[in-house]
Amino acid sequence: DLVLLGFCVSNDVLNNLRCSEELPVRSEPNAFAQFIDHPLLTNPLARWSRAYRYGVWTYGRHWVRYELMHEPEALARTGRWLERLHAISRGADGRTIPMGLVLVPTVHQVSKTLSERIGRTVRVNDAVLSLCTELGLPALDPLAALRLETEPLYIPVDRHMNRAGNDALARICPLEQEASLLRRARLLLADSDSRTLAQVTLQLADPV
Predict the structure, then answer these.
(1) Who contacts 142 (Cβ-Cβ below 8 Å, separation ≥6)?
(2) Residues 204/184, Cβ–Cβ less than 8 Å
(3) What CA–CA distance (Å, rounded) separates 67 from 44?
(4) Which residue, 6, 35, 46, 140, is the most exposed by fewest CB within 10 angstroms?
(5) What are the residues whose beta carbons fall under 8 Å from the beta carbon of 177, sequence distance 6 or more?
(6) H helices of the chain, where?
(7) Helix axes 178-190, 197-205, angle to 10 degrees
(8) CA dist., res. 159 & res. 113, Å (int)
(9) Largest Cα span, the chain
(10) CA distances to 54, 188, 202 from 118, in Å
(11) Is 203 exposed, middle or buried (0-12, 13-18, 19+ CB in 10 A)?
């Protein structure tokens, strides 16, 4: 068995704020108060100017979202959820099930758009990878490889990966060599404390 967690950069950090950390898990009613009440979205221009609202909807709200994702508490909560999942995979049914994380980048990150260059949203990717390092959780960042693809990888407007995007991700993640990946993932989990994230990523991407 293998637990391979797909972590969507576009929303998973913020989605982790929606649920309470105590059991039973419940919805947090004020999870997005910082977003809703942000001055960029609540100033007088947001009420009076259509042009301003268009600009905020197209660009501003994404900048606010990624700034909130990079807040220490948002990242800390993500780390705690990853730590719980990792612990569960290590103790499931009295046996260790290898677990790895695959970052799923956004269309703007893959295409290196102007909004990405201005917002520097890859800071969120780097922060999640750092959390994985701290937890000894093998992680794969496919961003560089996806940027080499020549076909459109995302559905227009919807911004989820299309078939070509999923095919590309499957090629990058070596699941067709399942037995080898499982064997290597177990070794990485057993020896993760002595390895760097770069070493773990390389070995997950090139199993033997």
Answers:
(1) 102, 103, 104, 105, 169, 172, 173
(2) yes
(3) 22
(4) 6
(5) 207
(6) 12-15, 33-36, 39-42, 44-48, 50-55, 61-69, 72-91, 107-111, 114-119, 122-135, 143-146, 163-172, 178-190, 197-205
(7) 160
(8) 14
(9) 61
(10) 18, 36, 29
(11) middle
Read off the tokens for 4.
């391979």
Identity at 47, one-letter amino acid code: R
pLDDT 10s digits, 10-63: 888 888 777 777 767 677 777 777 777 888 888 898 889 999 888 887 778 888
Query: Using the 8-state DSSP alphabet, how is residue 27 labeled?
Result: B
**For residue 170, which amino acid is it?**
A
Distant-in-sequence, close-in-space partners of 173: CB < 8 Å, separation ≥ 6: 4, 102, 140, 142
Report the chain's C-alpha Rg in angstroms.
Answer: 19
Beta sheet of 139-140, edge-to-edge order: 3-8, 99-104, 139-140
> Would the pTM of this model clear 0.85, i.e. be above it?
no
Amino acid at 37: D
What Cα–Cα distance (Å) separates residue 114 from each residue in 13, 25, 69, 121?
22, 38, 19, 11
